[in-house]
Structures are given as C-alpha cells and as structure tokens.
Amino acid sequence: MNPKIYYDIKNKYPDVRIIAVSKYTSDENIKTLFSLGHKEFAENKVQDLLRKKEEISKEISWHFIGNLQKNKINNLIKSKPSLWQSCTDFTLANEVNKRLNYKLDCLLQINSSCEVNKSGINTQQALDEYLKIKNECNNLNLIGFMCIGAIDKNYTQKSFEDCYKIYDKAKKYGAKICSMGMSSDYELAIKCGSNMIRLGTILFK
Length: 205
Ligand SMILES: *Cc1c(COP(=O)(O)O)cnc(C)c1O
What we know:
Strands 7-6-5-4-3-2-1-8 form an eight-stranded parallel beta sheet. 43% of the residues lie in helices and 20% in strands. It is an alpha/beta fold. The radius of gyration is 16 Å and the shape is globular. The termini are close together. Bound molecules: pyridoxal-5'-phosphate. Residues 21, 23, 44, 65, 148, 182-184, 198-202 line the site of pyridoxal-5'-phosphate.
C-alpha cells in the first residue's frame, strides 16, 4: 500500500471521489488505508464484500462493482452495499428491486467501449433504460452511471466521452455520479468529466 500516491491523487483532484478497489489486496492493506481516513472501498464478488464488511470494519462504505449473478442477489441485498455500481440493465434491476426491503443507491453500467466481453447497457439504449429503472424500480435509487474505459487506447477517450454525454443528459433526472477511470486511465477519465474513480493496482501495488 502506497500512501503517497493516494495523497497525491486526492490532493490533485479534490472534487473527485476515490473508491479504493480492494479485490486483489490483503486485509492488512485495506486496514492501513482505512486508518488514514479513507472510507470508500469496492469489491467485485459478493462473498468477498460480505466477509470483508464483517471482518474488517463496519464503518467502511463498500461498493459493489462486479457482475451480479442471479443466485447472488440475496447476498448482495444482505451485504447492504453503500453503492451498487454495476447494474447492467432493467431486467437485473427489476430482479433486485423485487427482493429489496430497503432503498439501495445504484448506478447503471454502460458498455461505452462496445467491447463484446464487457457487461453493461449499450450507449444507444442507456438513457431509456435509466429512465425505465428510475420509474419502475422504486427500491432502487438510481443516481448515475459507471463505465470501464476501452482497453484499446485509441478508443478510451471516446468511451469516456460517450458515457459522460449520457450522464450529462440524465442530470435532469437525478444523475449525480459519473464513475469512470481506473489505475491506467483515471486522469483521462477526469478530463472527460468523471467525478468518481475506482483505483486498485495503483493504490495497493
Ligand atoms: C478491478 C476493477 C477496478 C480497478 O482496477 P485497477 O486497474 O486495479 O485500478 C475498477 N473498476 C472495476 C469495475 C474493476 O473490476
């Protein structure tokens, strides 16, 4: 864990929320960053989120950023994440919504890189899907979008810009969070309007 890099990024971008992605790091490193005052972490497996929430600290806000299989929905709900960033479409939103017994903040994941192996709604449908979830899933509090930048460097910027455009249109429908940018591309993502970055490798290497 590298506190200097964490502070450098935090000071350089005071208006951007840093989410520490702890999926590949040790519990010790999570505790170190938490002891420095950092409170927002993310996991991509429901069972890891449940365990870490139980064992590390109840004061940490955990985000869920992974693919959600249907048979893990009940555990996701049980884990009470502070933000579910990876809602991929209305069908999944509806499944979660039906079983929720509290209000869950969430983001719609957009596949703005158009890469076939990535999950998320395509850019053409994203705003309609956002509004449909917003109108029909009353236990979900949909407050923005998440995307993963295109791996092909020639298209990374475009994928962020496309996601930002949708976010910008959805601002009048309550969108407040545009979650884009990981260790390799967070600076570009911020230039394109991101206000939430998800950093793993760069913080914990
Ligand atoms: C793993 C992961 C990250 C963090 O990736 P790094 O390259 O380690 O910063 C961010 N977002 C999602 C959705 C992830 O799965």
